Each structure stands twice: as C-alpha cells, then as structure tokens.
Amino acid sequence: MSTPSISQDIMTNLGNSPGISLALFLGGLIGAVAFMAIAGLILIYAERKICAHFQCRLGPMRVGWHGILQSVADTIKLLMKEDIVPYAADKFMHALAPIVALAAALMTLIAIPMSAKITLADSNIGVLYISAISGIGVLGILLGGWSSNNKWSMLGAMRAGAQIISYELSATLSILAIVMLSGSLKISTIIQSQEAGWWIWRAPVVGLVAFLSFLISSTAEVNRTPFDLAEGESELAAGFHTEYSGMRFAFFFLAEYLNLFIVSALGATLFLGGWMPFHLGEWTMFNQIMDLIPQSIWFLGKTSFMIFVSMWFRWTFPRLRVDQLMKLEWKVLLPIGFVNLLLCAFMTLFGFYFFSTTTRGF
Amino acid sequence: MKTIIAERPFEGNFFSKVIFGFKSLIKGMGITFGYLVHPSTVVTQQYPENRKTLKISDRARNQLVFNLDENNYHKCTACHICEQQCPNGSIHVLERKKPASAKVELDTFIWRLDSCTFCNVCVMVCPFQVLKMTQDFESSVFDQKLLIYNLTPYAGPTSTVLNKIVEPEERKKMIEPRGQYSGPTALAGFHIAGISKQVFQETEQRKDQK
What we know:
Chain A is mainly alpha-helical. Helix content of chain A is 65%, strand content 0%.
C-alpha cells in the first residue's frame, strides 16, 4: 500500500547488514542535523521579515540583499559570544537543558515524512511517538528554568510546564480524530488514507473543528504568542532563557523554530494530506494533473502555509493572562474536543464522510 | 458635557462567546494581513540612502533657529523670557547697550543643544515669535563645545527698527555681524578660543542690578 522509503529501498537491495544500518543511521542523522540548521536559519529570517511587514516595518535590510544573510550573521555572532553561566546555577543541568530541548526537536523531526521517498523513520506508532517525544521538549525548558537559579526563569519554566500539560490534551484529542478516521497510527498510512481528499474537508465540520483545535493547541505547545507566557518579556525578563547566552541560547532559539516547523508539518500531514497532492475522489483526470507537482513541493507548500498562519497569529494577537490561558483550554477547547471526538467516532462508524469507500468498523 | 460610557464586555452563552471571539480574532488578522500585502503602509525609512527624499513630520523638533525676515533681521528684543522659562538653562540671552540711550538690545543668543530637551517652551513663550523649531536633525559633531551655538546673525536692534531706516549704510552702522560660534559661551571655563569673556560678564552684571 505505502511506497517504500529510501532506507527500505537500500535495505532490500543491499541486504540487512549491521554496517549498512550504521551508515544509514549516520547519514540520516547528518541529513537531519543539516536540515535542522538550514530550516532554522530560513525560518528565523522569514519570521523577522514577515513580522516586520505585519507591523508596517521593513525588517532586516542591511546584510545582503534585503537582509538575506542576517540570520547567518546572527549565528556567527552567537557562536563568538561569551557563554555566561550564573555563579549559583546548577552547572550540569544548565548545560544539559538546551541540548535536551534541541534533541527532542530533532527526534520529532525524523518521524515526519517529507515525501513518499524522503522518510527517515516510518514507525507503526508514528503519531504516538511524535506526541510523546514533543512533550520532552518542555523538559529542556523546565531544566533550564530551574537550574538557572533565577526567579523569573523558574516562573517561566513552571508556566511552560503547566501550559504544555494542559494543551497536550487538546492536541492529542484532535490528532485522535484523524487517527480514528484513517484507522492507523502509522504516518505513511494516514497520508495514504487521504488519497481521495484531505481530512480537513473530507470529514465535514469535524475535520475543520479538529484542525482549528490542533492549530490553537499546537501554537500553545510551542510557546508562541499569544501563548508565550513562558517567555513573557514584559513580565519575566526573558522567562526560562533569561540566564542563557551565546551558543546555549542559540540552541533554545533553534529548538523553538524547529518545533514550529514540526507542529506545522504535523498539522499539514494530518489535516492537509502531507505530501499527498490535492485529490478529489474518483476524478482521475484531475488527480493525475495534481500528481505532476512533486510530492515534496506539496509538503513544503502546506508546511509553509501552516508556518505562515502561526506567524500571522503571533504578530496579530495579544498575549493571554495565565488564568485566561487555563480557561481557554479546560473550559473551551477540551469540551469542544471531546464532543468533536464523539462525532468523529460516529462518522467513522457509519462511513459518514466524503468518498468513504467502505463502512469500516462493521 | 458629554458622558462616555465604556463598552460592556460581550455577554452571551458559550457558543455565541466562542463565535464572537473567533470573529474578533479574524477581524484583527484581516488588519495585519492588509499591512502585509500593502508595502505602501511601511513607515520605516532607509535613512542614509534616502537622505534626499526623507520625510520628517512637521511636528519634529530638532534644531532651534531664529525666524528671520527677508533682510535677515530678527524681532528679538532681548526680553529674557525664554531664558527664564527654559527648564534646563539652555538659553543665554546676552545684551548690549543701545548707543545714546539707556535701553538694551540683543548681542548674542546662546543656545546649548547639548543640554536642550526640545520641549518647545521657548518657542511658545516668545512674545514676538522669534524662535522656531526646524526638522534639521543631523546635528552631531565631534566636540561637545561645538554644540553651543549663537542663533542671531547680528548684534543690534530688531527688524521693526531696522526696516524703518531707508539708508543701507545707516543700518550697517547699527548692527554688528555675529557668526554661529562668535560671542562668549555660557558655561564657565568652557570657552572657545579667541572669544572674550567681557560681554558675558557685562550682561550678568546688568541682570544682577535689576
């Protein structure tokens, strides 16, 4: 059913020796790290440019053409900066925290398929893996905030912890709706199940509600405005990364933008079909025309759209208060999510969505 | 008097609140999207490159200058009101005795850019509208001493007196030219080379007598 990935291709052709497994592992790792660094640079530049134009500004204009080398220059600056560790900090934890944050982002990144061929790890519990590992990112924030020995860092970290525990629920509930509809936790199967159409519109209303719920809760999970209480520069200096400088700060910064990419890619994969081109049921002619556009272009386009929406949110909405944040999750999003899940269950049971092939479940 | 009543927060049931919230969020997103797709709304100016086409607000207050008429004559009578009202003591009005009379006229008008806060009080209190603020903001120099200016182009009577005199030679006799850095400076020991302290001291003595 699913197209074999590159690693599977090579495996079947060359046999399953330990040396080749190791080479594949290292190649994948290097590829993921390189992708991470480049994606981080591009995202930071895009964010600065887009936010500037949202606010009637120009953004970076001086380094390179329209400031295109600005994030490279910033990276060099951060690399050469002095790495200050507070005297009373827990040195080991302080050093560990940014690595944990970045490692969690990297581990999530490898589970996201960019096309039918470019798939690093296609586990049969892919969605579960992503929801579990992305939660580790907050461990980095908690560690960093606690080990800095600074009240603002501590408060920011505690806020981040409380926020992520709350919003994981809504995110998971909306993911569950898609898991139910596609009948699998494996990401490649979920994408394949959207061959007749993306879940956002194929499951009427339910898909859209789940998508909006996922959008809100994933914005909260990556600590972006309007949910950036963990940083809250007007209240907490810089929140959990107040005491970080130089390369360690850069790690946190990079992890933040990678998480943005990951949740956007996940949203695109689950609700907008991932690398699956825009198909309409049995309209073979239309589907074939859509197939002419490469899968990775579809994936990148959808992910860019999701990232743009996230940035749009960030530079439009004001920050929530802590009590408003909790109220939004527990009193609004969670009830809506549960009702939506229930409706989705009925919909799946009776095959009540567009282009439903079978009455699966009976 | 008109009473302004604050808008009440939206009331309604759960769903109408959620829908109201979504509507207002989408409205806000529409506004920011409008800014994004219309580059004409950008207010940032690329300053050193666009020096010639720079747009500065008419209300910008960057440099204090004299209002001069077509003959380069001012209306300052050396009344000292601006000097008294200046909150930072940035203005020093130095006067000289009018020939053949007990009255005084303006000698030098010293303005200290380095201590000025551009509060515009001197412009507002002047009874003859002598002073004005201009948009010329490039006032950086390499020596703090150069930030102490003389604003008047000449020492002598006001334009009302001068313009009544027909003979140009007569006018020239009544006035003495002053440059931007001529005349004494107001700060003790902060003198520019080649300028005497005498006029400054004379003015101070006259003020004490009053």
